[in-house]
Each structure stands twice: as structure tokens, then as C-alpha cells.
Amino acid sequence: MKSVHSYPYGEFSSNLSFEDVEKSIFTRTEQSGFAGVFITGISCNTDDIKLISNFPGEFISAYCHHKYFLHDPVLQHCSKHHNPITWYDSHKASLKSKESKLLHQLSLSCGIEHCLAIPTFTNKGAGVVNLYFRGGKGDFLHLCAGKYAELIGLSQLFFGELSKNYPEKLFMQFKLTTREKECLQFIVKGLSNLEISQLMSVSRDRVKELVSLILKKLEAANRTEAVMIAAKSGAL
């Protein structure tokens, strides 16, 4: 295995375009010893997924087309735990449903055998950074062990930059109107309908209507759940 030299994982330069940030992420991933990266937000809205990746195209195409993300044990692990996990260990620990087995077979058929999944978090929501290693298992585990903390920091840097400046690239966005978004912000602050009506200069009945629409769109049972779903989906 070729030697991989450490280098400073500094912040991204200001005023970069998304294309520049994406290119920088791919370059830094390669410099850290990995062949590819797959970054996505973990959202409660599971009808679709948004991701940034330079994984083999056939993998990404099938992953999205067959909605494997609905049954992905890697995403399930990273939504509940803070510790990184290899794809192999994740699939091994899963119940191995038909869909998860097909997903595992897909990754192997595309030459993606060794991946490290790192949970990431910001105030926009949770996500996962998957790092793909092209090589043997021994070299993969050696690289992960030797640069464990470094890789976690790098992954958080990637996710933090994207989550802050390009959340629409990671999270499915709920289609809230401007007034619904404004009302949601007041709900987050714990304000009552009366307080919201005064701040929005609308009637209490209008606030009730807005709250009802927000709960329906977020598929939430109550205000507390709506706030949690909005936060996890990057809608806030």
C-alpha cells in the first residue's frame, strides 16, 4: 500500500461555488487515501434522497432507482449511533432483509467492498460520510485505524461546509410556503398561537390553519414532533 501523507485539513475558502467545494471534497478524499466519497443527509422524509458522491455511477444509479436507502443498514446505524462503522460490519449486524442483501450484492458487483461510514452532525441535521477504499481488507483497516480521528474530523468538515452553505444538496426539502416557514420558526421558539398571530399580524384562526398545514406536510402528530422532523430534515 502506498504511503499516505497527512496534510492540514483547513477550512474551505470563502466564496467558493458549489462545484469548487465538491471538487475540493473529492480531492481531499483522494489525498486521505480513499478512492471515493458518498455524502448524504439523514432525513425523516424518506421518499427520496439527495447525495454528493463520486462513487461508481452504476452503484449510485441503482441505489437511487431501487430506493435502497430505505433499507440501508449503514444509514440506519448512523441515524442512531455516533461511532463510525464499516459497511461490512453494518451489513453483518443487520437483520439482512431481502433489500439489504441486494444492496450488499450491488456494492460488491460494483467493486465497492471496503467502506467506512462516519456519522456527522450539524444544527441543520444529521448525515453520513462514506469513504470508499480501493484495495485489500488489511490495508483498509490499517488506514482506518491509523487515521481514525483525522477521518472523523475531515468528514465533519465536509458535512459542515455542505450543510451550512448547500443544505439543499443533502436534504430533501419540504415544500413549505413563506408564511408556513415563518410560522414554523415561531413554533420552534415555543410561542403560542396568540403570540404568533401578533408577530405575524394575522388572526389566531389563520395561525391554526398554518400550524395544521405544517403538521400535515411534515407528517407530524404535534408541534414537538414537527420541530424534530424539520430539524432532522434540514428544513430549519
Looking at this protein, list some descriptive labels:
236 residues, 11 helices, five-stranded antiparallel β-sheet, alpha+beta, Arc Repressor Mutant, subunit A, Beta-Lactamase
What secondary-structure arrangement, pairings included, does this model have?
Blueprint: H1 18-31, E1 36-42, E2 51-53, H2 57-65, H3 73-80, E3 85-86, H4 87-93, H5 98-109, E4 114-122, E5 125-133, H6 137-146, H7 148-165, H8 178-188, H9 193-200, H10 204-218, H11 223-233
Antiparallel strand pairs: 1-2, 1-5, 3-4, 4-5
Helix pairs in contact: 8-10, 9-10, 10-11
DSSP summary: helix tally: 11
**Broad shape:** elongated
β-strand percent reads 5-15%
Give the spatial strand order of the biggest sheet.
2-1-5-4-3
CATH homologous superfamily placement of the largest domain: Transcription factor LuxR-like, autoinducer-binding domain
Quickly name the level 1 CATH class of the largest domain: Alpha Beta
CATH topology of the largest domain: Beta-Lactamase
Number of domains: 2
Report the major sheet.
5 strands, antiparallel
Spans of at least 5 consecutive residues with low confidence? 1-8
- The ordered string of helix (H) and strand (E) elements is HEEHHEHHEEHHHHHH
* Estimated radius of gyration: 20 Å
Average pLDDT over all residues: 89
Number of β-strand runs: 5
Distance between the termini: 44 Å
What's the helical proportion of residues? 40-55%
